[in-house]
Amino acid sequence: MTRLCLGLIALMLAACSPVQQTPPPLIPLRPVPTPLTCAEFFPQGDWQYVHAIRFQLASGGGGSAIGVVVLTSQDIRCALTTVEGLTLFEARAKGTGPVEIMRALPPFDRRHFADNLVKDIRTLFVPPLGLVRQGRLADKARVCRYETADGETADLMETKDGCWRLQTYNPDPLANRSVRAYSCEYTSQSGLMPSQLELVAPGRSGYTINMRLISAQRLTTPNP
């Protein structure tokens, strides 16, 4: 238990990377019969997900946990439990507002842990805020490029296996994240739902999170 707690706290520390990345040039898309529908890369409607989580720290440590995420139009709720069912951490955040900690066993009561955990959940499951353009990269991959008011760029790209990947570019390079989704299934109710997700925060204090989907339950009917 001690190793799990210390590993998860270290996992949410900001990655150390002195190099600032910039988005690659975006080639405008020519008119196509089936343009990308950017929203379909993200959950449609309200869902509850349960994942088996494995994490690896750049320093060499690691561990595992069960993660529960509830996404609604009003808020995000999340929890971390042990395999045996002990709740280590539970929190919620309304919209883009602050994180409310509902349960946190020490050392999970530290503020930066909750903030960074919810930020990574938003990266995985919530469309970036801001303007979106479509285009191609040099490797021909079609991309939805989101540009936010605070200077962040997020490239959401389709992959050859019918799934997606995401790369963020921040003015603060410590906040960058890359995500790769695997084994996606598409329905009009769920969009592209991956059975596996990998999130990477680079740098000497970075980490890699691997998430395997255990269950997905739709809570409400998406708006038409």
Observed structural traits:
224 residues; mainly beta; 13-stranded antiparallel beta sheet; 2 helices; 13 strands
How many helical elements?
2
> What oligomeric state is this?
single chain
Mean model confidence by pLDDT: 82
Helix/strand class: mainly beta
Low-confidence stretches are 1-6, 9-18
Strand arrangement within the widest β-sheet reads: 1-7-8-9-10-11-12-13-2-3-4-5-6
Distance between the termini: 45 Å
Radius of gyration: 17 Å
How many E strands?
A: 13
- Helix-residue proportion: 10-25%
Sheet with the most strands, sense and barrel status: 13 strands, antiparallel
Strand content: over 45%
N to C succession of SSEs: HEEEEEEHEEEEEEE
Described by the principal axes of the CA atoms, the overall outline is globular
Describe this structure in words.
This protein is mostly beta strands. It has helices at about 1-10, 110-125; strands at about 25-30, 45-55, 60-70, 75-80, 85-95, 100-105, 130-135, 140-145, 155-160, 165-170, 180-185, 190-200, 205-220. Strands 1-7-8-9-10-11-12-13-2-3-4-5-6 form a 13-stranded antiparallel sheet. A hairpin with a 4-residue loop joins strand 2 and strand 3. The radius of gyration is 17 Å and the shape is globular. The chain starts with a helix and ends in a 6-residue tail after the last strand.
